[in-house]
Specification:
heterodimer, A: alpha/beta, 3-stranded parallel beta sheet, about 25% helix, B: 3 domains, 5-stranded mixed beta sheet, elongated
């Protein structure tokens, strides 16, 4: 008889999803910028937002309440519903 | 199991069973009787058709507690039972009189083999009679169990105890909580964290079942939003869960709060902290260089657990500072790292010693990092004595340290002392505090010799958006 061990893991495989193809152009698209509340991340994403707006591209701004926790579902959902492309600053 | 008739369960190792063997012969003369023997299929001698129950399966199904046991079934339903030797009871079950007239009226039986702890666990597992539902991972015939755990990514780098069903079932005996109880969703994968999953990881860590209430309380604590497990895991900084145990349970399970308290050598200290980390790794998927992005980490991420030396200290327990009644069994988890030693051999007064504590705290992380992280100050017995002899209690020490945490911004400003790190030059002319008002915790632990205290620094200043220590009562 072979030995069996009890699985110590959560027993769920993380699904892998292919990324959406990058758009060829931002013309006519709405871009979201997400400040994750990391130090100076706001400076970075605001600069990106202004550059985009200078090219006539629609921009929506989002901000996570804190860098230490995952984004609230409401913010994730708003980004999914409202923009075509999102830019975020991950580290200081 | 038969539909009708009598069943007797015996074992040779039981003097009462040996004594009543002739009675079984008497019964067989005019009754349908099946005899199961637990230890020797040749017993009782001279009777044909003894049923071998050395597997104990029949005894387990009949839930035999004592041998000999005599049971009567009718139409598949048990209608009467007796155990040991009691002539009147046996006569009632058999439906006759005059049984074993040469024997004494009464003789108690012996414990049934199927009730012995190890065998009972095997039987429960074999009969699928356990609350456990985790997937079973069969190993190859020649696969080494410890190596198999490494290969499946379940280890923290040290060998783990292979989590067999027998061991996990025994671990679950250490708690009255149901195996399937959902304790929460474990970051970062947010997979369900059940008592059973914690027990599996506690086995792997090397825990004894009596540690389970402490492990479960620590898991409850890290799952609180205040602790911010996801953030403390994903950070590039050093921290992991530091587990501090208070209350009588620490002594009951043999924890160490004295010499080498933060070092190696005590099973409970070493394995409780390890169980928490293995649960985070395996249930939540928080693996180093995966979700765990630590630049250096710290050796305490294998295990960082100790108890306060309540018996050896004149101070009230740390848990009283945390709002609980003295004597409460509780764990506190704190996202912390390493140990910054605080040596002061020469202080003979609290006023001198507090200066050492304060200046050491000001240096945590980087003297220019203001505010710095929350800190846990571990005061050794000799330093406590210096404070006590000078008339200071713990509250006084806390207040005196906090009053020394204000520094002029110019001293810790960017550019000051040639250092780029520091507070904003806009704060010039003000004073800034190294610690938040809630940023200092004090515990008393360590060996009796040596004026060596220590600071366990935390993650960041403990604001509501960061990580704050969490205290949970231990349910026993």
């Amino acid at each position: 008889m072979t030995l069996s061990l009890m699985d110590p893991t959560g027993e769920r495989e993380t699904g892998e999803r292919a990324r959406l193809a990058r758009p060829q152009s931002l013309d006519g698209l709405t871009v979201g910028v997400l400040d994750i509340s990391k130090i100076r991340g706001d400076v970075f994403v605001e600069e990106v937002a202004k550059l985009l707006e200078g090219r006539g591209i629609a921009v929506k701004r989002y901000r996570k309440p804190t860098v230490s926790r995952t984004a609230p579902k409401a913010i994730e959902q708003a980004i999914v519903d409202e923009v075509d492309v999102v830019v975020e600053g991950l580290a200081d | 199991m038969q539909e009708n008739g009598l069943i007797a369960i015996v074992k040779r190792d039981c003097p009462t069973c040996v004594m009543i063997a002739p009675v079984l012969q008497e019964i067989l003369q005019s009754n349908e009787l099946t005899i199961y023997t637990q230890d020797d299929p040749g017993f009782p001698e001279g009777i044909e058709g003894i049923s071998d129950d050395t597997s104990l399966d029949a005894s387990y199904r009949l839930n035999v507690e004592i041998v000999p046991t005599l049971v009567r079934f009718e139409r598949g339903v048990e209608i009467s039972r007796t155990y040991g030797w009691d002539r009147a009871e046996w006569e009632k079950v058999v439906g006759t009189t005059g049984l074993g007239m040469s024997l004494p009226d009464f003789k108690p039986g012996c414990g049934a083999l199927n009730q012995e702890q190890d065998r009972l666990a095997d039987l429960r597992i074999r009969h699928g009679d356990t609350p456990m539902t985790s997937r079973l991972v069969p190993l190859g015939a020649k696969e080494d169990a410890i190596e198999a755990c490494y290969e499946r990514g379940w280890s923290d780098g040290l060998p783990v105890v292979p989590p067999t069903q027998e061991r996990v079932l025994a671990m679950l005996e250490g708690t009255t909580r149901d195996a399937e109880e959902l304790m929460g969703l474990m970051p970062s994968n947010l997979d369900p964290c059940t008592v059973e999953k914690v027990a599996i990881n506690a086995v792997m860590a090397g825990c004894r079942p009596e540690y389970m209430p402490v492990v479960l309380a620590a898991i409850e604590a890290v799952l609180e939003d205040d602790y911010c497990l996801h953030g403390t895991l994903a950070t590039t900084r050093f921290v992991g869960p530091v587990v501090i145990v208070n209350g009588p349970i620490a002594r009951q399970i043999g924890m160490n709060g004295q010499g080498n308290v933060l070092g190696q050598g005590n099973r409970a200290n070493a394995t409780i902290g390890r169980a928490v980390q293995l649960a985070v790794r395996n249930i939540g998927g928080g693996k180093p260089q995966g979700v765990d992005r630590a630049t250096l980490g710290n050796p305490g991420k294998l295990s960082y657990c100790f108890c306060e030396d309540e018996e050896g200290s004149a101070w009230e327990p740390f848990t009283v500072d945390r709002g609980l009644a003295p004597g409460t069994n509780a764990v506190t988890v704190f996202a912390g790292y390493g140990l910054q030693g605080v040596i002061d051999d020469r202080a003979r007064s609290p006023e001198q010693l507090v200066q050492t504590f304060a200046t050491s705290l000001l240096a945590v992380d980087n003297i220019h990092k203001v505010p710095g992280p929350d800190c846990l100050l571990v005061v050794c017995p000799e330093h406590e004595r210096t404070l006590m002899e000078g008339g200071w209690d713990k509250a006084r020490l806390h207040a005196e340290i906090m009053s020394r945490m204000q520094v002029p911004a110019e001293d810790v400003m960017r550019g000051a002392h040639g250092m780029a790190e520091g507070v904003s030059p806009e704060l010039a002319g003000t004073s800034v505090s190294k610690l938040l008002p809630t940023g200092l915790m004090i515990v008393r632990a360590g060996g009796g010799a040596g004026k060596f205290s220590g600071i366990i620094p935390g993650w960041t200043p403990g604001t509501p958006t960061s990580s704050r220590p969490v205290t949970k009562e231990i349910k026993t």
